[in-house]
Amino acid sequence: MGYAIETRGMIKDYGPFTLGPIDLALPGGTILGLIGENGAGKSTLIKCLLGIARPTAGEARLLDRPAPQALGQVGYVPDECPFSDALRVGQVERFLPGLFPGWDGALFTDYLARFDLPRDRKVKDLSRGMKMKLTIAAALAHRPRLLVLDEATAGLDPVARDEILEEFLRFVSDEDHALLIFSHITSDLEKLCDYVVYLHRGRLTVQGAKDELLERYGKVTCARAELARIDPAILVGKRAGEYGCQALVSDRAALRESCPDLAVDRCTLEDIMIFTTRGDRT
Amino acid sequence: MRGFLKRDWALICVNLRFYLLFLAGACLLAVFANFSIGPCLILFSVINVMNLFAYDEANHWMDYAAAAPRGRRTVVDARYLLSLCVGGAMAVLQVAVERFSAQALLHALVFGGGYLLYTAVVLPVFFRFGSAKGRMVLILAIAALSGAAVAAASALEERGVHFHSGLFFLFLPLGVAAMLASWPISRAVVGRKEF
Fold it and tell me: Which residues pair with A178 in a beta bridge?
């Protein structure tokens, strides 16, 4: 498998909001996490990738094919359960095989048992976590090669989240599989992802291998006067408090060289997101 | 297409008990009182189809369908097929309620044609605008179609043509033609639509 997802100069122009240009390449056997604040364009990006919306410019390819031709091998988990509240789980089970060509009924049955989803229960009587598990089971049961998840772990308790994250790791253990996950829960992405992309106001602001990013970026805690010594080229953002300041730098090693007396710690994806969005650079 | 068809049918069946009660009441009225069941069946069938769009919107079903292989076209095809099945079932019911007479067959064809006309308007409009705006368009369509039908019937009666036979020749071919035109329009609407 070449790239599970590949976009070149993809732009979606809605007038007041423009997404892109987006250049992404996700190799097979890996997990890409996408973070971004509300309204950053995450849902637009997912819609353009899956052909639900059409890019204004550029192109998106999934599994080495134009997106619409690859949909049979893509499992999509939207942020809300797409199955009507009025239906029972068993009714959902009956119509899903007609939607996806590679449907594996036995696998779906296995997921229903594993996720403890009773067939006679109406969708409206399922908790948010159970609805999400039903949607994930539907996405996995047609044996996709690429799984696209939009806020799949939002609103789940830690145990359910852990269970689902484990399922994703099992899915991607096959090198022919890849996973794209959009989430606000950065701790989940830190556990799960190989690559991370940060989308800010429609643009890819930070992207790279997660371990490399977390190794490279650093958080500095210092006095206000000491902030002026940090090279503006590596300063991502700073926040001044009553008792001191915090700053995020994009190159921990460079800071250690230029300001060896400043204490610089490892940061989290949440730090990168907050400092990029709300941090002051001036 | 089977998947989309089964899903839509399952949603229609959700209210099956209420529908059966409603139909039983209408049938009793038709059998024992001077009540024409035809308009009632048209309304019932069209509402059934319209309800599916409300279910779609509640769960962003069309987004999900668009992300399924060949989902955009198939979701349209399934809905047209189901609409025809619902209309066919209602026509059979009408013939049965009117005791399989020749007039019953004529009524079924007339009201079947009317149903096809309404459905041919409803489906592309609902696919394009969703259920809220779609309902407004439907009200306008009912007003326009009813007005046109009354005017046509009056004109025909003035010329000595029987009311039903006039409608029969007008509604059924118009309904079939409208459905044939409506189907590719809906396909194009959904094919281009961004969800």
Answer: A146
Asked if A64 and A2 touch (Cβ cutoff 8 Å), the reply is yes
pLDDT at A282 exceeding the cut of 60: no
Residue B56 sits at φ, ψ, to 5 deg, of -55, -45
Do the Cβ atoms of A100 and B68 come within 8 Å? yes
ipTM score for this prediction: 0.85
Residue A213 DSSP SS3: helix
Q: Which residues of A touch B57 (CB under 8 A)?
A: none
Residue of B nearest to A82 (CA): B59
A60 touches B at CB < 8 Å: no
Same domain, yes or no: A96 and A186: yes
Spatial separation of the C-alpha atoms in residues B121 and B138, rounded to whole Å: 7
The CA-atom distances, in angstroms, between A183 and each of A74, A78, A266, A279 are 19, 11, 21, 21
| Residues of chain B found within 8 Å of residue A180, distances taken between Cβ atoms | none
Do B49 and B79 meet the contact criterion of CB atoms below 8 Å apart? Answer: yes
Give the structural domain span for A11.
3-208
Residue A281 scores a pLDDT above 60: no
* Percent of chain B clearing pLDDT 70 (strictly above): 95
Contact at 8 Å (CB) between B131 and B57? yes
Quote the CA–CA distance of A186 and A84 in Å, as a whole number: 30
The shortest CB-CB distance from A72 to any of B1, B14, B69 is to: B69
Q: Are residues A156 and A247 in the same domain?
A: no
Q: How many domains does chain A have?
A: 2
Q: Which one of A54, A84, A98 has the shortest CB-CB distance to B4?
A: A98
Distance (Å) of CA B193 to CA B100, B107, B120, B189: 44, 38, 19, 6
Domain boundary among A208, A233, A261: A208
Burial of B17 (0-12, 13-18, 19+ CB in 10 A): exposed
pLDDT per residue as tens digits for the range B144-185: 877 887 887 788 778 877 655 655 667 788 889 999 999 999
**B193 has a chain A CB within 8 A of its CB:** no
Per-residue pLDDT reduced to its tens digit, A71-96: 999 999 998 999 999 999 999 999 99
Burial class of A221 by CB neighbour count within 10 A (0 to 12, 13 to 18, 19+): middle
Check residue B52 and give its pLDDT. Answer: 92
The answer on A228 and A197 residing in a single domain is no
Contacts of B78 in chain A (CB under 8 A): none
Residue B194 has pLDDT above 60, yes or no: yes
Domain count, chain B: 1
**Of A215, A214, A228, residue with least CA distance to A262:** A228
Confidence (pTM):
0.85
